[in-house]
């Protein structure tokens, strides 16, 4: 079954808003076995939207649209869809009751523009949007579907999980299911490797790739020193067959593999520490809290992550992390001696099993011949002792800090 996404809004095309919706939807659709064929972004322009719909329906079984469902004049999606499907707007009493209840404590919001939200195309099936005022609309286009959702990310995610995907599943199981081959199965297996260049990895896997059966694909996805290898089958192979090839891929990459899934490194760390009832804290200088943000961003992180001391200025290192000024003067703030002191101090103060400490030169200035921009020292304090490594991570500031976080988490995974 093939799908396309159309994101609607001028703000997406001028860079004012980043389209995170499509990435999340793509991942979710693959998980439920729906192949995403194309993502298109269009202006708040009726002709542009209609052209995009024509093209999407020429290729896809299901079309998802996001955005343009607000009550202001620039939000035209509902009106364009109404015209496209040859319908007219009617009052939906359920939507009206929901909106009146949603804003019962905010009478200033219940104005004449908000009232347009309970006008819906007569031909659409309306699903509940429990967290917003924009109705979720599903249109039938012959044996195809269009699902229209708000562009606000948290509204879209709830709509997809609670309404749209269950609705699609119910249609697949009917006597005349949507799509050309609704039972085709998309299968993905992902592992992560590090410590080997992408080109060298391709040489290592050359015979493996040449012997893969038709319908099986291997993708290389490098980022910040980590390469994700994704093995994919789009309906041709059984789950057992794909697993057999994945097992062989794991065997070939065993010297470099750090994870048998595509989960983010911080998720892998969290799973291991939670299972073992162990904890971690961080002491950050050059990464400025980015590592703390990664470790605390996912639900359940409070089970293993205690906190961080962001010691960006040297005075914080000396006063809160007990780094002697003499060590800084002798070895420099970006040194093995300093990060080891930082890691040990934060582990003692926050009483955790593990800690990570970072100190480096993110740039663009501050480097020297001995320690150029991109030099980063990372230390790991563990129940078995403390160790540190030096890395050279490029010349671009964001690149350096991102790579430092990746190196920090990879080093932690190796130690735990």
CATH topology of the largest domain: Molybdenum Cofactor Biosythetic Enzyme, Chain A
Specify the CATH class of the largest domain.
Answer: Alpha Beta
CATH architecture of the largest domain: 3-Layer(aba) Sandwich
What is the structural class?
alpha/beta
The number of strands is: 17
Query: Can you give the mean pLDDT?
Result: 93
Strand order of the largest sheet: 2-1-3-8-7-6
Strand content is 25-35%
Architecture blueprint of SSEs:
Blueprint: E1 2-8, H1 10-13, H2 21-31, E2 35-42, H3 46-57, E3 62-66, H4 77-84, E4 89-91, H5 93-102, E5 119-121, E6 125-127, E7 136-141, E8 144-149, H6 153-172, E9 186-194, H7 198-204, H8 206-211, E10 216-223, E11 226-234, H9 239-252, E12 257-259, H10 265-276, E13 280-284, H11 290-296, E14 305-310, H12 314-320, H13 325-331, H14 336-350, E15 354-360, E16 375-382, E17 385-392, H15 397-415
Parallel strand pairs: 1-2, 1-3, 3-8, 13-14, 13-15
Antiparallel strand pairs: 4-5, 6-7, 7-8, 9-11, 9-12, 10-11, 15-16, 16-17
Helix pairs in contact: 10-15
Short description:
38% of the residues lie in helices and 25% in strands. The chain has 15 helices and 17 strands.
Word description of this protein:
The protein is α/β, with parallel strands linked by helices and 416 residues long. It has 3 domains: 2-172, MoaB/Mog-like domain (Molybdenum Cofactor Biosythetic Enzyme, Chain A, 3-Layer(aba) Sandwich), CATH 3.40.980; 186-259, 2-Layer Sandwich (Alpha-Beta Plaits), CATH 3.30.70.2860; 265-415, Maf protein. The protein is built from 15 helices and 17 strands. The protein has a 6-stranded mixed beta sheet, with helices on both faces. A 5-stranded mixed beta sheet has the order 14-13-15-16-17, with helices on both faces. A 4-stranded antiparallel beta sheet has the order 10-11-9-12, sandwiched between helices. Helix 10 packs parallel to helix 15. The longest helix is centred in the middle third of the chain and has 20 residues, at 153-172. The mean pLDDT is 93.
């Amino acid at each position: 079954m093939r799908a396309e996404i159309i994101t609607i809004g001028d703000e997406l095309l001028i860079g004012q808003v980043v389209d995170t919706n499509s990435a999340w939807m793509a991942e979710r659709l693959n998980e439920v076995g729906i192949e995403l064929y194309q993502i298109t972004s269009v202006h708040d322009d009726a002709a542009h939207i209609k052209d995009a719909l024509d093209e999407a329906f020429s290729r896809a079984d299901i079309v998802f649209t996001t955005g343009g469902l607000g009550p202001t004049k620039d939000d035209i999606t509902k009106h364009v869809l109404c015209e496209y499907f040859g319908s007219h707007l009617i009052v939906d009493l359920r939507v009206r009751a929901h909106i009146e209840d949603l804003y019962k404590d905010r009478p200033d919001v219940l104005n004449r523009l908000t009232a347009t939200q309970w006008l819906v195309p007569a031909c659409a099936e309306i699903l509940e949007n429990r967290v917003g005022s924009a109705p979720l609309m599903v249109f039938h286009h012959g044996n195809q579907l269009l699902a229209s959702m708000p562009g606000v990310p948290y509204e879209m995610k709830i709509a997809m999980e609670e309404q749209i995907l269950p609705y699609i599943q119910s249609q697949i199981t009917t006597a005349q299911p949507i799509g050309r081959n609704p039972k085709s199965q998309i299968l993905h297996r992902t592992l992560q490797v590090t410590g080997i260049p992408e080109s060298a990895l391709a040489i290592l896997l050359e015979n493996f790739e040449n012997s893969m059966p038709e319908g099986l694909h291997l993708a290389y996805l490098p980022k910040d020193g980590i390469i994700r290898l994704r093995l994919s089958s789009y309906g041709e192979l059984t789950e057992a067959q794909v697993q057999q090839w994945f097992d062989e891929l794991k065997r070939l990459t065993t010297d470099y593999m750090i994870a048998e899934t595509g989960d983010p490194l911080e998720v892998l760390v969290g799973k291991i520490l939670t299972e073992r009832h162990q904890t971690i804290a961080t002491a950050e200088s050059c990464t400025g809290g980015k590592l703390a943000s990664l470790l605390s961003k996912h639900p359940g992180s409070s089970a293993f992550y205690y906190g961080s001391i962001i010691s960006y200025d040297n005075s914080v290192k000396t006063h809160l992390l007990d780094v002697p000024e003499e060590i800084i003067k002798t070895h420099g703030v970006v040194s093995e001696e300093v990060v080891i002191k930082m890691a040990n101090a934060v582990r003692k103060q926050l009483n955790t099993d593990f800690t990570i400490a970072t100190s480096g030169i993110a740039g663009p200035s501050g480097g020297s011949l001995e320690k150029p921009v991109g030099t980063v020292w990372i230390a790991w304090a563990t129940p078995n002792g403390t160790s540190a490594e030096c890395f050279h991570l490029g010349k671009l500031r964001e690149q350096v800090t991102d790579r430092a976080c990746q190196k920090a988490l990879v080093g932690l995974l190796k130690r735990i």
